[in-house]
Amino acid sequence: MSNLSNQAFGIDFFTGTKDELMSSISQDIHRPYSYIVTPNIDHVVQLQSNPDMRESYQRAGKRICDSRILMPILKSLGVAVPEVITGSDLTLSILRKANDERLSVVLIGSSENDVGKLRRMYPHIQLAHYNPPMGFINDPLETQKCVDFVMQNPSEFILYAVGAPRQEKLARQIDSSKRTGVGLCIGASILFAVGTVKRAPRWMQKAKLEWLHRMCSEPKRLAKRYVHDALSILPIYLKERSSRRT
């Protein structure tokens, strides 16, 4: 249920625990299609200037706090999010559930090499995989191929691994009246799940330093983004705090 205690930056946050989320997902996979987004600092920044991203967020079924940096910001605004649920951790839980229960998963994105690892690690998942070309989201025909693949392959889960804001835009184009299941916008989570990219040690995660580990691991891709986000989030936060006091 939506209320003032779980809203910030135009996002209506999920305010349950991970166990509660997984319980809800277990029911939702049998209901009309819905999808989950994973707001972090970068998403908050994008949402300020990207109306397309905002629409994707508004139409999402759940919006979970993915960031240990975002979490204290939300708490300072009085948002009642009990714990961080990272997309990477949620992806692992979903993969384990799908494997244990022999469920079907559609995966959009990821290399054949990583998908091969995934199949070996989770042999009981019924996996359907499609990897669209670079720039697909700007090509209506290529985007439709992704939509058609999702619609033509019934599954309990749909994992969108093509990066923000592409995956969110794709997720919202699926017709909920014509299929069931839960979609999850997972970014690079498959890379972590199969070990292609190593996650930060647990102590770094607890110290809210996972961003530093990721930036050092992929400096060319992430350094510029992280600097931009760091410079952008302060005025966004101050504006949000001011608006809540008036």
UniProtKB/TrEMBL annotation:
The keyword DNA damage does not apply. It holds the Pfam family Glyco_tran_WecG. Keywords: Glycosyltransferase, Transferase. It comes from the Bacteria. Signal peptide: none annotated. InterPro entries: WecG_TagA_CpsF. GO terms for molecular function: hexosyltransferase activity. This is N-acetyl-mannosamine transferase. It comes from Pseudomonas oryzihabitans.
